Amino acid sequence: MNFNKKMKNMVFENLEIEIKKLYKYCQKLSGSPWTAEDLVQETMIKVYRLKKTDPNRKFNFSFLCTVAKNLFIDEKRKSKEVIHFNEDFYGEVMIQ
């Protein structure tokens, strides 16, 4: 098994279960299924890169949601779009 395949298995072995929940969170956050798909993909790429630099790092669902939320906010800032973000509402989504 080559290095990239090992790394892929290490990163996504435990996260695969969480992807559906992350998609639901991203869809609620963005209000769009297409944006949610993009957010999930960008989140997983970021986590993959983090895992490459720190193989022992553990990830949980809360961390994934934080990464997705930050990516969403960054994208809105780039487009200078104003967003109204209710931390309490989206915090409840993560718990469910």
UniProtKB/TrEMBL annotation:
One function term, GO molecular function aspect: sigma factor activity
InterPro entries associated with the record: RNA_pol_sigma70_ECF_CS, RNA_pol_sigma70_r2, RNA_pol_sigma_r2
Source organism per UniProt: Ureibacillus chungkukjangi
Family according to the record: Belongs to the sigma-70 factor family. ECF subfamily.
Family annotation (Gene3D superfamilies): 1.10.1740.10
One GO-annotated biological process of the protein: DNA-templated transcription initiation
Keyword Heme set for record: no
Keyword terms: DNA-binding, Sigma factor, Transcription, Transcription regulation
Name of the molecule in the record: RNA polymerase sigma factor
